[in-house]
Amino acid sequence: MTPTPPGREADVILADGTVAVLRPVLPTDRPLFVEFYSHVSEESRYLRFFGPHPELTEQDLSDWVDVDGRDRVTLVLTRQGRIVATAHYALVPDAAPERVADVSFLVSDDTQGRGAANILLEHLAQVGRESGVTRFSAEMITSNQSMRQVFLRAGYDVRPALEDGVITVDFAIDPTERSRTVMHQREHRAEAASISALLTPAAIAVLGDSERMAPLTAAIRASGYPGRVDTHLRDPVDLVIAGYGPDLPDVIAGAARHGARGIVVLADGDNPNLSTAAAAALVSRARAHGIRACGPASLGLINTALPLNATPAPAVPAGRVGLFTQSAGVATLTLSRALERGCGLSSFVASGAFADVTANDLMQYWSDDPDTDICLLTLDAIGNPRKFFRVLRRLALEKPVVIFTPSRALLSARHHTAVGLVAVPPGALDEVIRHAGAIVTARRDTMFDVAGILDRQPVPPGRRVRVISNSAGLTAQMRQAAHRFGLHPSAVTVSGDPVEGLIRAARQALADPHVDIVLTAAVEISHPVSGPVHRGLEELAAACRRPLVGVFVGFGPPPVGADLPVFTSYADALEALALIADNEEKRAAARPDPADELAPSPEEDATGLLRGLLAAHPGGGWLSDSECGRLLAAYGIDTADTADTAGTAVTMRAVEDPVLGPIMSVGLAGPVPELLDDRSWRVPPLRRRDARDMLTGLGTAALLTGHDGAESADPADLAALEDLLMRLGRLKDELVSVVEVELSPVLAGPDGARVTGARARVLPLGPERDPLARSL
What we know:
Layout: E1 10-13, E2 19-24, H1 30-37, H2 42-49, H3 58-65, E3 72-79, E4 82-91, E5 100-107, H4 116-130, E6 135-141, H5 145-152, E7 161-163, E8 166-172, H6 177-199, E9 203-206, H7 210-222, E10 228-230, E11 239-243, H8 248-257, E12 262-266, H9 276-288, E13 292-298, E14 300-303, E15 308-310, E16 318-325, H10 328-341, E17 345-350, H11 359-368, E18 374-378, H12 385-398, E19 401-404, H13 406-411, H14 426-435, E20 439-441, H15 444-456, E21 464-469, H16 472-484, E22 488-493, H17 498-511, E23 517-523, H18 530-541, E24 548-553, E25 566-567, H19 570-589, H20 606-616, E26 621-622, H21 625-633, E27 648-657, E28 661-668, H22 671-675, E29 680-682, H23 688-696, H24 702-705, H25 718-734, E30 738-749, E31 752-755, E32 758-762
Parallel strand pairs: 5-6, 9-10, 9-11, 11-12, 12-13, 16-17, 16-18, 18-19, 19-20, 21-22, 21-23, 23-24, 24-25
Antiparallel strand pairs: 1-2, 2-3, 3-4, 4-5, 6-8, 7-8, 14-15, 14-17, 26-32, 27-28, 27-30, 28-29, 30-31, 30-32
Organism: Corynebacterium humireducens NBRC 106098 = DSM 45392
Protein name: N-acetyltransferase domain-containing protein
InterPro entries: Acyl_CoA_acyltransferase, GNAT_dom, NAD(P)-bd_dom_sf, Succ_CoA_lig_flav_dom, Succinyl-CoA_synth-like
């Protein structure tokens, strides 16, 4: 028997949010299959074997276990070491030379209805594609409607046929847009369900040293948690909270035996620094037992709707803001600042270092959570960058997303083992996350400033801001600051009674159709101004359709209200408002538009071509000119060997970054743009609007557009450059193993764009841009 190729093991989330382990069959699995079959009902056996089949025969076991990993493949789904479902394919000899495989599935009755067969089909099709299989076929008796639906709903072009009382299906397993969409939708629902289970436990067990755990137990009870709280394991339990220690493997096993869906492993000041391997082992152990894990070194979690506060923090006000953090130290700082700012939370999760639960999971959950309208994240690392950007783009279209300092934090996630990958500059990380739809802040307080405005006021329809004050000097400074932050200000300085004047000016500004934002600053020196102005603005803020923000300057504490965002610094307020306005423009531009997409390419199969290139370069390396030309041609990119140098020289690059995955840039060719870092960055795939923004956002864009006194009288063909960028983006998005590709120089003129130089480098990283089979 040929060993199954490595890399086919995966931790997966079922439709109900529970975790299972998917892996290839092992020679030692025979007894596990016998035990598995004992949990399968007579009806399920009948549907699988087309008749009564009380016991497995030696031939049945051989069919499952004696495989070669290519022409005969068996995958199993396990929970707590037990097989709960299996899928198998065997090549059909009569179909040669086409590689068609017959597929079959069997799921234990207590696992049916959880999407196990759907996940197995995704992974089996992935193995088949890697092994050159082009089609799957299957037969089912007519009463097996559940299996029929598995095939029909997978997103492939399946047309069932009825022959002699048997339903047959035969379909190509090449991925389709529909199959990708179906997988992403199922992934979204399953991951959201798994986080919902973590945040809504009916029973909690807090384990460990009683003195250490007493404050946490008290916090849970004080929060008004309506469920049962124990200090030992007993049935049923949904969530286990424990400290890190040598007995943690036993704690995880015990939690699984009592039906726990999740475990939180808390941080401790005495904890040793865990190695990556030790932390990964903890996560793997939890997943193998079907449990989702926060930790090691988690601060805990909060769900104010339940309510539940399973953190050391005091009572947290309920609100519409979801907050995700990773390491315990950052989590403590961030949560304490949220409490100081009076930020009302819907949910809070501190995943801990190297955790199972990631930002992707929380974004999936927030997308469906009716209690969360604003999403805040502080990130130390991104686990699956392609998935992160896919999920972020979708969530950012639905709800505002604010991310604190990704460029600084994520630089630490670049591991020294990422040999051969190309690291992009720190500023590029902020830029690509911003263009994915998130608001990126450089200060933690700015994150909460943005959240405070979004939580209380409508989003601005534009950048036109009216700044109002009872101090001429302050009004002038606010106007200058608004310009600096990219807003378009108009200014009013009130005279006479400051209370009446400020409230009247704010009311008039809110009614002005040429004003998008109103910022009112009240200066109190001797006579009472702040209190009465705040009451008047609070009344306006409760019903306004454009954002109204108050700044209160004086020697007393600032007023506190419900609907009016209050600041003591006009610069902080304007910075937050500018970030929100900029983000609204980007979110509007990001909404899907079919006319903005690149049409499918009819050229040579790029995946097959890449397999051949990797076979020729098993250790990776730079491609020859002819190999590079063939790779580019597969995406409709032609290279020209010409002595004609007319046109503006442009450089386009796409690389595999060790933190953010695929990322691409464009700028004018030559040392000066490189030294000035005049490049635009995006994460592929690109739409036409993305490509155009990359070009027009360059500091040297005038050399392409022919405007602003640039030497080139004729503008370059921007549409041709956009097309090249989109095609290069598609290549990098689809082909992970092409770790670096550069088009330089691209000569852009009024009649088109010619690629006169190109190079590409490959590494054997993996076959898929975003796996076509779900896994954690």
